[in-house]
Amino acid sequence: MRNPETERTRRIWEKTAPHYDRGISPFERLLVGDGRRWVCSRAAGDVLKVAVGTGRNFPFYPAGVSLSAVDISPAMLAVARERAGSLGMRVNLAEADAQALPFEDESFDAVVSTLAMCSIPDERLALREMKRVLRSGGRLLLLDHVRSTSPVVFSLQRVLEPLSVRFAGDHLLRRPLERVVELGFSVEESRRCRKGIVEMLAARKPV
Prior knowledge:
Elements: H1 4-16, H2 20-32, H3 35-40, E1 46-50, E2 66-71, H4 74-87, E3 91-95, E4 108-114, H5 123-133, E5 134-145, H6 151-168, H7 176-182, E6 186-193, E7 198-204
Parallel strand pairs: 1-2, 1-4, 2-3, 4-5
Antiparallel strand pairs: 5-7, 6-7
């Protein structure tokens, strides 16, 4: 049984699914840029996309990857399934909670999360699950909005955080890189842009 906050998150994304692509596009053009391509281009082998959403990453994976993807929202998965079909991609899609992934230990060569760690209720638990399902030496690839390096923007994020979490389940002040380091990953690449609001990260699970 899902905890109340996880169930609330599912309801938010069920309502958001029909208009998610339209709503997220301006944000991505303004802040994310080529972030999805940057992250996905570093994936290889057996790849898991956590919180697949509507499948906006699909066009950016290299040829030859074996892609599985999960999301907590059936409505988001339905859109992702249509997108995969339109692109002629084979993707193993399943409804699942990022905080309790339904895969055996060391199942994947890479785990990808884009614009998702901000809305998963327990980011530490989700990252532990990602580490668990990664093979030894596997790659964790993240893209997210994080707390800004600009004092002015950071102050605005602090003001907006309670409202953002309450109404959209969206945390503005997280920085997954810190949790990744705590878990013992070796950071290979990291990039911040747009006054530090957006961060891209590639890290390896210890061998």
